[in-house]
Design a protein that fits this description.
homohexamer, globular
Chain lengths: 201, 201, 201, 201, 201, 201
Amino acid sequence: MDGTKDICALDLADRKNLDPEMTALVAGIEKKYGFMPHFVRVFATDNQRLRAFMGQYMELMRRDSGLTPLEHEMIALVSAATNGCVYCTAHHGALLRGETGDALFTEYLSRNYRLAALTPRQRAMLDFTVKVNRDAESIADEDREVLREVGFGDEQIYMICATAAFYAGANRLAQAIGLRPSPRYLEMYREPRPVRRRAKA
Amino acid sequence: MDGTKDICALDLADRKNLDPEMTALVAGIEKKYGFMPHFVRVFATDNQRLRAFMGQYMELMRRDSGLTPLEHEMIALVSAATNGCVYCTAHHGALLRGETGDALFTEYLSRNYRLAALTPRQRAMLDFTVKVNRDAESIADEDREVLREVGFGDEQIYMICATAAFYAGANRLAQAIGLRPSPRYLEMYREPRPVRRRAKA
Amino acid sequence: MDGTKDICALDLADRKNLDPEMTALVAGIEKKYGFMPHFVRVFATDNQRLRAFMGQYMELMRRDSGLTPLEHEMIALVSAATNGCVYCTAHHGALLRGETGDALFTEYLSRNYRLAALTPRQRAMLDFTVKVNRDAESIADEDREVLREVGFGDEQIYMICATAAFYAGANRLAQAIGLRPSPRYLEMYREPRPVRRRAKA
Amino acid sequence: MDGTKDICALDLADRKNLDPEMTALVAGIEKKYGFMPHFVRVFATDNQRLRAFMGQYMELMRRDSGLTPLEHEMIALVSAATNGCVYCTAHHGALLRGETGDALFTEYLSRNYRLAALTPRQRAMLDFTVKVNRDAESIADEDREVLREVGFGDEQIYMICATAAFYAGANRLAQAIGLRPSPRYLEMYREPRPVRRRAKA
Amino acid sequence: MDGTKDICALDLADRKNLDPEMTALVAGIEKKYGFMPHFVRVFATDNQRLRAFMGQYMELMRRDSGLTPLEHEMIALVSAATNGCVYCTAHHGALLRGETGDALFTEYLSRNYRLAALTPRQRAMLDFTVKVNRDAESIADEDREVLREVGFGDEQIYMICATAAFYAGANRLAQAIGLRPSPRYLEMYREPRPVRRRAKA
Amino acid sequence: MDGTKDICALDLADRKNLDPEMTALVAGIEKKYGFMPHFVRVFATDNQRLRAFMGQYMELMRRDSGLTPLEHEMIALVSAATNGCVYCTAHHGALLRGETGDALFTEYLSRNYRLAALTPRQRAMLDFTVKVNRDAESIADEDREVLREVGFGDEQIYMICATAAFYAGANRLAQAIGLRPSPRYLEMYREPRPVRRRAKA
């Protein structure tokens, strides 16, 4: 396909200008998912556009971020749920099912994380995530202190802030351009697996 | 100074790992403003962190974005006002005063853009900006159609979406880490200059 | 099990007083679902309690209600989504997948029905459903007129009102007692089937 | 009269199919009030419709519910006030004046129960009632614990949940169909009587 | 009594410094109502305080205001209802019953004026009143134009603005000091009288 | 100029009926500000109108009010910010800069006072101010108790209530009539001066 009309509400031309590094990256993503995620197709319409997005994403996923991949995905899914983004709950719902092997836990996080069985550390992290997304204006020292009390250091708190803020933007972009999820997301990682969530958290 | 405790609510270590390109970029920003903006000091604590932010910013400001610098700054300031970010209204308020030479017009945009004298094109762009920031969940085809009716093409609409979404994230990050504005912002570009806003829009 | 502590936040004694009709009804439900839905276990703690609930449900599902089972389920799921009820989105999500064979359509209705492909009649019905659940205070003649314009008669409008209001109550009851969904819901009717939604609507 | 056009916004045919039990029940209600309440006229258009409503109502008013009639009416009126239902504040305002003989206490409950002189038990029950009606999504174990602390057992908490949820639905139904109150409600039980509220509570 | 502890949440000393004009005014009010309204007792604790309030009130009630007493009271009651002020709905509810002789019409205005039978002029005036009280920030030229379209001139629109704004303040003052209504308000003007509302409007 | 069309959205005739006292007062205000504030021009269209406003203002500024001018201005600015009034944030922003000599402190109060460095007494006063403006309905004894705990007596609490309520009304009036600020406000008191805020508070 040449544009994006079939996957979102805007028709963006594919500038076909990806450099070898970005081309390889896109191929790797398609292989990992088994299909080409629609958000990738949108960013891949232009080399700079894709690079800018991936640069930000890689910064958040850096090895020394202080957050585990599970924590990253929990923030991502709860942000998407808070912002009511259908694309992003489908995408990160699939990823969190993959991460945890627990469809019901994931369902709670995608609807109302407060009803899920969470460690105090996870609960504090997600309460903060919701506040960043919904009412950042009222964040005060007390809110950051709660994170410190459950063991997060300032560098980690920064990563929580940056991750939640990143998805606040990404969710809105997906919604603003009317990005539509592939039905494939809904089927991914549905087969039950040994839950490894607690061990990792 | 070595950390960020004096400018925000988190104490982030300066990793002193900026490469020559980032070092030059930071020097250029300080020269342009006449002081080092606090948000730059935060990102400049780490090379990858700064690069990721600048990559995203440069993508939005690209020459062929289809939006003028004035339009970019209007979206930035109205996003900041919508999200109630004190740092970002100070920063982008200064930049919009610089862009327009009109302190009262800027004041309106930083408080209630609907009371400002705007072209239909600007008004539509800012209405959409507010919806991206405040209620992206309810954006529908009708909203994008309004932008097309005042002359924006799909590539430009994408840039409006991406710019508004970027500031939705950036504002929240500033608020989440408790970033404090320099008083210098409040004095910048206060001297009246010939208004060039209309001509450019 | 003898109480309800394992499925909700309240421990209700099972009064073991179901009459033969209610006993048969419960058995039939368990057979239909392949497991005992938790909401049934709660109501079945007392004969009058179960009868009262089923009487109301049967009244809404009456053959001459003027609404199709698909329409009933769409109202049920959109109510649950509007009220943020995790139990009821799981339950009615499964039922709507069964009714439509379309997991993505169901996902839209469980998150943001406005993004789904709907007939004008379905859209009007669901807009009204949301208003009943979220802001019934502001319902005016104009709102009911919209339903008439897409072809609903007054008896049908009554059934829409009654169905939406019923789920407004049922969702809140499930939330107030902390009812927890079975993970089985999430797996039900996931296998793709020929979509029969449009034909029925 | 043959339809319901004179008392609500929908014209529902009177199916004239009440069985003897329902016929007697309607006659009893008219006698008790001194006029036929409009909500009864609506439900009495069909035998099953009326039975379904009465079955639910009787379940809530059962002798062993654990709640007093005063408590039931307080929940009913505060639900109606929370949902802004003019019909239901008129109806349950009259009933609570009858129950308490205290027009000012009733006025407080119909506008802002937090300003009324309440026992801690009543206050906790009504705080919970408001949360069921307005924000059931955020009800957590802590909220139910508050009810236990003022002496409610789990069976009683269930009845509070069920009563508040029932009125959440009933208020919305009255609003959705545009049910209009009789002016007679406003005059009922206005004559001062010895207050028996405290003694009963 | 010497202070205000029995009628509100603050204990204000009675400075006993009313001049003859204010003394006569207070006596006149008590005679008119048949009891001393509590808000008068609060303001009458000091001569300047009472004068300041009465000066503002008299300005709004001036003979050449362009609004009828009925229109003034409708604005007053709808403001009180919008702001949820129990004292002011009791006070202005009584006055509007007196003005109209119609308890049900008054009840609608005190709960949800949109359900009352209103002339287009009254409806426009009250829609504007609600916007002044609840969301003045979003008032635009279009809102004032609606008032002009139903026949209000600019001087009258000013009086609507000033009246609604006055009660926005007065309601909040009553709420902030915890002013309690006399039960006498609830009994005033309950006897039906020939309705003169329409004729006057 | 003869009307008010150039400064607000309504065209009010200047009745040219100011008595000598009001004429002198207007002249004094113009001299103090260096220009005629637009709100004065509106009220000065009629003698009684101006008197009524000034009477209320003088009552709040009385020497024995128990509040300092700084406290008065802080309440005024935070009310304006809470209500989103562009005119009043410009006006009281200028006055608070004059009072404090601190543009950044003023900026915080005009956007988000919770981020400013405040004494516990100031913070309590401003929290209460926001509640009066935004949600007076939920003010309870606990809220007034917080004020007593930081040292305010009941007479002072009354003045906080009256001041906040006054600006709740004044802000809405300015917004309802579309009053436009003079750009002069934005330049006033920008030159840094020795901060005297703390000493006075």
